[in-house]
Specification:
about 350 residues, mainly beta, Tachylectin-2, Chain A, 6-stranded antiparallel β-sheet, about 50% strand, UCP031900, Phytase-like_dom, Phytase-like domain-containing protein
Amino acid sequence: MRAGEMWPRILLVLAGGVVVGGVLAAAPPAADGVAPLPLTATPVPLAPRDPAVRDVGRLRYMGGVELQSTNVTFGGLSGLAAGRDGWLLAVSDTGNWVGFRTVEKHGRLVGVTDGVIAPLLDEIGGAALVKKAGDAEAVVWDADGTASVSFEQDDRIAVYPRIDPARPDSLRTRAARIIRTPATSGWPDNGGGETLVRLSDGTLLWFAEDGQDAEGRSPALRIAPDGTVSALLYAAPTGFRPTDAAEVAPGRVLIVNRRFTPMEGMSAVVTLATVAPVMQGEVVARLVPPLTTDNMEGIAVMRADGRTFVYLASDDNFAGYQRTLLLKFELLNASPASARRP
């Protein structure tokens, strides 16, 4: 196992449990029904050594926070989507919905409010009882409220109608449809359906995290509105793996990719790719230490006044040495700028 592949697997083990006094304990159970989620938000700079740093590549930092909660089921955020009125909808790899609304001041992210948590329900209305059944990794949230959730290990997409965290009871909705395809049969158990994005034409793109070919390209599927499935490949930056994506223009998607190395620690690269049989992303920004970063697994896009804003979220794996970060950036349309390093 290469060093670049080791950490995602360590994370997947830790996501199934909590380290308590050095012992791997059972993971927190899914929330018992819909519940308010108390959240505290501590502001974080982009560059701890130089809080004046704002730009990294084509992203301009618009504030960020570390999220914490007294609810022990909060954590493991592995997918993120944006809705109206500042609402963000996330899924956790322990089988929960997590919703909250951003608090912004002069356009900068300073906090969150109205948190809510609830278990993801299957098609018969039951919550996942084991990790393999509840390993949600990505969510697409359409304008009509339809939420499509990608699960890995048991690779499938569950479709939920009329989801709205502003109406918490909507999170009691059971899956109305399950999408499966034999095309995922070669995807690794702990490296399957990690990334899901809907294009403006209704097409779904579904990426595996692992299972790269000899050239290091990740397998992906294109699922047309009529259900037709075709294979794609995505060439992530060397050593990185795709973890989430969002469309920013017709046929153009932002993809967040993560990597761990013993020397560098956890880092992320955001790429911009055009949908094609082989997708080659251009680097938009690199979030590497000492810049603020963690196990970045969620990306969402909001548009306002002709500007495009990008939110990134991290999966803390319920590990004390990791954090749940929510970072906001503006995507700059100018040619890539040199990042000022601390």
